[in-house]
Fold this protein.
Amino acid sequence: MNAKRYFSMTTIFAAALSLVFSCGQQQAQQKQIAQAQKEARVYKIGLSLAITGPTSDAGNPYSKGVEDYLRFVNEEKLLGDDKIEYMIRDDQYKTDVTKRNFEDFLTEGMVFYLNYSTGSTLGLKKDFEEEKMPVVPASFHAGNLVDSNYIFLPIVSYSSQMIGLSDFLVSNHTGGTPKVAMFIHPSAFGRGPVEDTKNAVTAGLKMDIVEVVEHGKDLDNTAMLKRLLSKKVRYVLCHTVQSPVATLLKDAQRLGVIAQRFGESGKLTFLGVHYTGGNDLIALAGSAAENFYWSTSYTLTSEAGSGTLAQLALAKRYGRDDKAANSHNYTNGVMVAQIAVEAIRRAKARGVAVNRANLYQELLGMNGYNAFYPLTTVGPVSYSATDKEGVDTLQIYRVQQGVFKRVGAPFVSEFTKKVM
Amino acid sequence: MAVNRWVATGNFFSSYQEEQRIFITHTDRLIFCVAVTLLFIWPLVFELSNKFMLVIDNTLIAIVAIYGLNLVTGFAGLISIGHAAFVGVGAYTVASFATVLGDRHLLITHGWPLMIVIAGFVGAGFGAFVGLPALRLKHLYLAIATLSFQMIFQWVINFMTFFDQGQTIPVGRVFWFTGRIVRRQHYLFWYYVILVLVVVLGFAVRNLLRTRYGRCLVAVRDNDRAADAMGMHPGFTKVYAFALAGFFAGVAGALHAYLYRGVGIESFTLHQSITYLAMAIVGGLGTVVGSLCGPAAIQALDLAVESLAEHAGALLPAALNLSTALRPLSFGLVIVLFLMFEPRGIANWWRIIRSYVKLWPFRY
C-alpha cells in the first residue's frame, strides 16, 4: 500500500514537474515570439473592389493578382520579417459600400489603399485628400487626377491610351485622312477620352471623327455598322468593356466587314483601349476577334518573357486556373500590389517609418533613375508631383490565330504630351 | 377611458380624441422617451468606428425614405418602384446648387438646413408630377409608370453634362455653431441631425394619420370608390400621397448628399429602389414601426452576411466567389421568406409582443 502510495506520489510529482517545465518552455517560446513580433512590423494595405456584381469579370482576377503577390511577399520574406496584412473586400461596384470599406480600413490602420472603379475613386477623392492616403485605383480615368494629389494611376489614362491608339492609327493609315468612329461606354468612363481625342485632332492629329456612338445593351449592331460604312468610316475606336465589343465584332464578322489587313478599304478595322481587350474578348468573340488591335501597358502571357513567366509561376503557386493566370486583369492586380510593396521597401531602405506620408513621398520619388521597373509592364512606373500616370508607354497588340501578338515596340504618342 | 393610464389592458376609449392619441398609455410614452434618450446618449458613451457610424447614419436616412414609401405604398396602396429616383431628386437638388454656386458656397455649407427643406419640396414637386398617372392608373400599371420615372431619371443624370453625367458631384463640409464639421466629427454630427429628423418626421407621419388627410389615404387604399362615395377625392389623395412620399425621399436624398459629401448616380439606381421596397416589406407595410424596423433589419442582414462571407473567404480562399454570392442570395431569400411567412413584416412581431405584455398574465 505504501509502495503504491509512494509510486502514485512520484507520478504526480513528475507530472507536475513536467507541466511546470513545459509551461516554462512555452513562456520562453512566447517571449521569443513576442520579441520577434516586436521587431517585425505589419503594414496594412486595403483593397475594395467588385468581386461580384458589375465588372466582376475584371475585378475577380484583379483581386487574385493582388492577393497572390502579397502572399508571395510575406512567404518569401521580401520585406524581411515585416509582413503585409492585406484586407480585400467586395463592394459589388457600389460607391456606398466602397466608402464603408475605406472607413473600416482606416480604422484598421491602413497605410496604402488600392481602389477599383471610376465612380468610387471620384466619390472618395476628397476623403483621400483629407486622409493624405496614397491610392492606386484600377480605373485609369484622367478625371481621377483632377484636383487630386494622392491618386496615382498605375498606367497611362484612358485618354492617353485613346490618343496613342489614334496616333498609331494615323501613322499606319495610307491614303488621305482616315475616317474614324468612336464606340464608347455610355458613362463618364466611356465619354472621358472623347473630348481629349478631339483635342488631339485639333492639335494636329490628322483624322476625321465621323461619329461617336454610345452603345446601349444592343444585341445587334447591323444598322450601326451599315451606317458607319455608308459614311466611309474605316476605323472604329472602342472604349468600353469586352462584351459590347464582342457583340460588335461578331456582327461585323457576320456582315463580312472586318478588315483582313490594317485599314482595308471598304471594311472596318477595330481598335480598343485597355478594358476592351484581353483573353476575355477572344473567349467572347471567338474568331471575330481576329485582327482586333488593342492598346495596354501590360505584358501578356501570349508573348513569353521573364515577367509573364513569373506571373504564370505565381498563379500556379497559388492554384489559380488558366483563365485567371492569363488574364491581363490578374497582371494589373499583381502590378498595383508591386507598386505598394516597392514604396514600402523603399521607405524601409531609407530607414523612415512606413506610414502614409512617407509612402506618398516614395511614390513621388519614383522617377528618373529611381523609376520602378516591374516585369509585367512595357515600361517603367514613374511618378512625380506633376505626373501621376505610372507607366507612360503603350504597347499595341493584335489578335492573330486566337492570341494577342505584339505589334511594333512600346511608344509614347507626341500628341499625348501636347494634349494631356 | 382606463382608470389606470399606466397599464391599460383593453379599449376604454370614450371619445375619438382619446382613440387618436399618439401614446395610449403613460408606459408607451415612457418607453418612447427612454428609447429616444438612449439613442441620443449612447454615442457619447460608446465610441463606434466610422464604418459603423456610417452604417447607422445610412440606416437612419433609409428610415426617412421609408417613411415616404410607406405613405404611398403602405398607407395609400400605390406601388412605387421608383423611390430611389425620388431620393435622387433630393440629392441632385443639393448637387445642382453645389454645381451652380460652388460646393463651398455659404448656402451649401451654412444653409444646409434650408437646403434639406428645399430638397424635400423639390422631391414633393416631382412626386406630385409622377403621381399624376395615378389618376388613371392602378396596381401594376401604376408600378410601371413609377418604374419609367426611375429609368428616365437615371438616363437624364447619365446623359446631362450639368449633372456630370452621373459622376460624383462634390458637396462641401458643413458648418455648425461650433465651426466647421471636420472629418473626425462628421459621422457623429450627421447622426444627431438625422436622428432629430427621424423623430420629428416620425411624429409628422403619426400625426398625419390622425388627420382626415391621413385617413383618406387608408380609405382610398381600401376602396377608392367607397372613399369617393364618402366625399373624399381619390385622385387628389393619390397625388398628394406621391407628393408626401417625394418630400420624405427628397429630405433623405439631401441627407445622403451631405453624409457622403457627394452625389453620384450609383446610389439611386433601380436596385436601390427595390432595396427600399424590400425594407418596407420586411419592416411591415402600412406601419410607422415597420419604417423603423425594415431598414435596420436589411442593413443588419447585409453586414452579417458580409461578415460571414469574409470569414468563409478567409477559411476557403478558393471559395471566395461562392461566399460573396451569399449577399444577394440571402437578400432575396429573406424577402421571399417574409412574403411567404410574415407578410405583415417585423412590425407584426412588435404588435404581438406588445399585446402579449399588455394582456399578461392572461393569454387572451
